[in-house]
Amino acid sequence: MVRRIVNLISFFNLAIFLSCASFSVLAAPISQDSPGEARDYFGKFSRPSKQPSSPIGGYSFGCLAGGQVLPESGPTWQAMRLSRNRNWGHPVLLDYLVKLSEKAAELRGWKGLYIGDLAQPRGGQMVSGHASHQTGLDVDIWMLPASNLNLTRTERENISSISLRKSRGAYVNDSWTKEHHKLLRSAASDPRVERIFVFPGAKVKMCKDEKGNRDWLRKIRPWYGHHYHFHVRLKCPNDATECENQHPPPLGDGCSEAEKWVKNILNPPKRDPNAPKPKPKPPLTLKRIPEQCIAVLNAPDVNSN
Questions:
Q1: Distance in angstroms (rounded) separating the CA atoms of residues 200 and 169
Q2: Residue 78: which of 172, 142, 13, 11 has the closest Cα?
Q3: Where along the chain do its domains lie?
């Protein structure tokens, strides 16, 4: 089954290579001195670069050479919000999603996965919605059980996921099930995973309920939001020499840290009125991303000769 699906993905990407419309070539080459933010450039491309697939730079300041597309639908998944054109990633991420979706299909009430944003065709900073998802190694997976894998494009634009949080994320609500626990355990148990972001109450719930091996809990990281979906981040592939890994999570299962998050949600610490206001993050200009990403921006698309 896996080999057949991988062949499907390869065929799908070959079809794009042979038949997709070319992106209009910009009048002048892009350089690190070009004005504006990285989002102004990466968001304009509708097709990947004609290069070997490679993640470049860091998750929040990088790009994706030779992006591969996750087909809109497969035996055990559907890509959502197709109008965004964010179902592109590195081949390792696509393989991960195929395998995880097959495991999801074994869960009660699930036929597979609804898959949210991966990356843009050439990765890079998005116009809206994410700081990361720039190298083709990040993906959002919906909390809504995929009970219907025949959704139309229009339905995929209009359907919403479900929130699993209660009390601003301190606890899970009644929509949380044992199947969510099993899915996140499977998602984190793959050795290619760097970390998974989910709201604090979910992490604490899984810490309390897990009775077996707890090693995978280390990768489950509490973070703001992430109650309609969970965010999977893969490690840089071994042969991706221009990819920059995030520091690994601290040793241990991280459960006490998640409990501190919950405590701060329920009893927010008082802010020091004399504390200086946090400085806004500087814009992500082309000077702040790897030089190799400029080559990705200037590369022909996959339909070019």
A1: 6
A2: 142
A3: 67-266
DSSP for residue 269: P
The encoded tokens of residue 34 equal: 């070009």
Tokens of 240: 């991706």
Contact assessment for residue 86 and residue 260, using Cβ atoms and an 8 Å cutoff: no
Classify the C-alpha dihedral 51-55-59-60 as positive or negative: negative
| Nearest by Cα to 120 from 177, 38, 190 | 38
C-alpha torsion angle, residues 23, 24, 29, 34 (rounded to 10): -90
Phi, psi of 230 (to 5 degrees): -115, 150
* Span 146-176, pLDDT tens digits: 999 999 999 999 999 999 999 999 999 999 9
User: How far is residue 15's CA from residue 11's CA, in Å, rounded to a whole number?
Assistant: 6
Strand 88-89 versus strand 73-74 pairing type: unpaired
The whole-model pTM stands at 0.91
Class of domain 67-266: alpha beta
CA 144 – CA 237 distance, rounded (Å): 29
Measured in residues, the chain has a length of 305
3-state secondary structure 214-236: CHHHHHEEECCCCCCEEEEEECC
Please, what's the b/e burial string for 68-97 (b: 16 or more CB within 10 A of its CB; e: otherwise)?
Answer: bbbbbbbebbbbbbeebebbbbbbbbbbbb
| Residue 273 CB-half CA count within 13 A | 0
The 10s digit of each residue's pLDDT in 271-281 is 888 889 889 99
Tell me which residue of 254, 131, 133 sits closest to 200, measured CA to CA: 254
Of residues 135, 1, 123, the one with CA closest to residue 74: 1
Pairing of strands 171-172, 193-198: unpaired
